[in-house]
Every structure is written in structure tokens, then in C-alpha cells.
Design a protein that fits this description.
Number of helices: 6
Helix content: 25-40%
Distance between the termini: 50 Å
Number of strands: 5
Strand content: 15-25%
Strand order of the largest sheet: 2-1-5-4-3
Oligomer: single chain
Shape: globular
Order of helices and strands: EEHHEHEEHHH
Length: about 190
């Protein structure tokens, strides 16, 4: 593997990056957050691993994610849900530059890593209270909420609406987390076009 990330998720549109092996993994997790799709989102939704040994072969499944991720050098992505019983906590996502499937041993190792990440998150949660502590995407979530309110969108109204809006005010080559303070939700006139 070339990179890894652990992301907490409370829904497909809400996530918080807990750990990343480097900037590349961080940018790929941010891409999934920004476009609202990808292997991590799919693994969280399904509650089971999503193994994309050849990312380009999944272009129709996650078009927004696949194009940018492949352009950024991703060949394969393997996402594992972090499960505490029936509760989904997030995902462990592994990235590789070259395409190819996981061996049986790799799959077993990744499953153990997902279990270890889950154990660490649960232990950390018992040690401290997350709700009052700032998260990686807090400003983006606030800006997205402001934008949704001004556009009159309900939470979950139409698949991909909030991610599409986040993309529309993200500068080219920069993810949503890099620019929440310039959200048009803070400056757009109310009731425009209504």
C-alpha cells in the first residue's frame, strides 16, 4: 500500500478525517468528501469492504471521484468499514498507485487493521468527548449548512446536492476543506431566483 486514512463518518455527507499517512491520503479523503462519493463512502453505506483493484474500471460507479483520483496517481483503492457491532463508525481506506487486487494475506491484514482502528476509536471516544471538539471538516460542514439553508435545501434532499455545491465553490485543484471561509453562503443574496 502507498497510503492509508481513517475517517469517521456519521452519514455519507458528514465525515471527519482522523488519521492519514500523508498529504496524498489526506487529499484523496478530502476528494471523497468534496464529491460525496468513492470507495470509502460506499464501504460506509454498505457496511462491508469495497475493493477496487482497478480504479479506472469503476469510473461509472464513482465518476466524480475516479477521474480526479486516477489523475492524481491512484490505481487501486480498498475501503473497509469500521464497525462496532452493528454501528458504523467510519472507514479505513487504503490507496495504491498501481492497479491490482489484494492477496488473501493482504485482505486478512487489512481486515485486522480495520478492527484495530475501530478499537482505537472506541477507546478514544470513551476517554474524551468528541462532540465539543473541533473536527477536520467542521468549517466546511457549517458553510455547507449555511449554503443549504439559503438555497432552501432539506438535509438529504436529492443525492449529491450538497457535495455538488461544495464543488462549485472550491477553486480548481483545491478541495472543499481548503476554502470554507469563502463560501458563497455567506455572501449570496437570499431568495435568489425564487
Amino acid at each position: 500500500m502507498d497510503a492509508a486514512a481513517v475517517t469517521m463518518r456519521t452519514s455519507t455527507l458528514s465525515q471527519d478525517l482522523v488519521a492519514a499517512s500523508g498529504e496524498w491520503a489526506e487529499s484523496l479523503e478530502e476528494l471523497q468528501y468534496t464529491v460525496g462519493e468513492g470507495p470509502g463512502v460506499a464501504a460506509f453505506e454498505a457496511g462491508e469492504p469495497v475493493l477496487a483493484g482497478d480504479l479506472l474500471a469503476t469510473a461509472s460507479r464513482w465518476p466524480g471521484f475516479t477521474e480526479e483520483a486516477a489523475a492524481g496517481g491512484v490505481g487501486a483503492v480498498f475501503a473497509f468499514p469500521l464497525l462496532a457491532g452493528a454501528v458504523r463508525l467510519g472507514t479505513l481506506t487504503l490507496y495504491r498507485r498501481r492497479p491490482g487486487t489484494l492477496t488473501s494475506a493482504d485482505l486478512a491484514d487489512a481486515s485486522i487493521l480495520a478492527e484495530l482502528a475501530t478499537t482505537a476509536l472506541v477507546a478514544d471516544h470513551q476517554r474524551r468527548s468528541w462532540p465539543g471538539e473541533p473536527g477536520f471538516y467542521d468549517e466546511v460542514n457549517i458553510a455547507s449548512g449555511m449554503l443549504a439553508a439559503q438555497l432552501g435545501l432539506r438535509r438529504g434532499a436529492g443525492p449529491g446536492r450538497a457535495p455538488a455545491r461544495r464543488r462549485s465553490w472550491s477553486p480548481p485543484g483545491r478541495g472543499a476543506a481548503s476554502c470554507p471561509r469563502r463560501s458563497p453562503a455567506r455572501s449570496w443574496p437570499r431568495n435568489r431566483g425564487r
